[in-house]
Amino acid sequence: QTQLVESGGGLVKPGGSLTLSCTASGLELLYYGIAWFRQAPGKEREGISCVNKTHGITIYAQSLRGRFAISRDNAKNAVVLQMNNLKPEDTGVYYCARNQYKSSWCPKSDREYGFWGQGTQVTVSS
User: Fold this and answer.
1) Mean pLDDT, range 37-49, rounded to an integer
2) Rounded to whole angstroms, how far apart are CA atoms 65 and 54?
3) What span, in angstroms and rounded, lies between the C-alpha atoms of 63 and 44?
4) For the chain, which has fewer Cβ within 10 Å, the N-terminal or C-terminal residue?
């Protein structure tokens, strides 16, 4: 069964860091544009950033630039989201997704994704 699986979420204090990992079964992530998203309680899901096949990055949430960084670890068939200096407003469920075109690039819009993982909870609280 082809699926995306997020991991690495948890409870962290403000100012702390977490590293989220998106891995896949039945799918080699290195061939696709893969993005991270998040959904805070009571809010719409928002795109964070995407990494393409050649490690090029598209940032959807400019406000997170400098604190969040996406990267690939092809040896582990994973796409990683490094999150630093976390704030309570970063609390939410974090998802990874493949673009709906099944292509190696990153769409300009974070609306163009069609294959999702189940998400991992991140809670930032003292």
Assistant:
1) 96
2) 20
3) 16
4) N
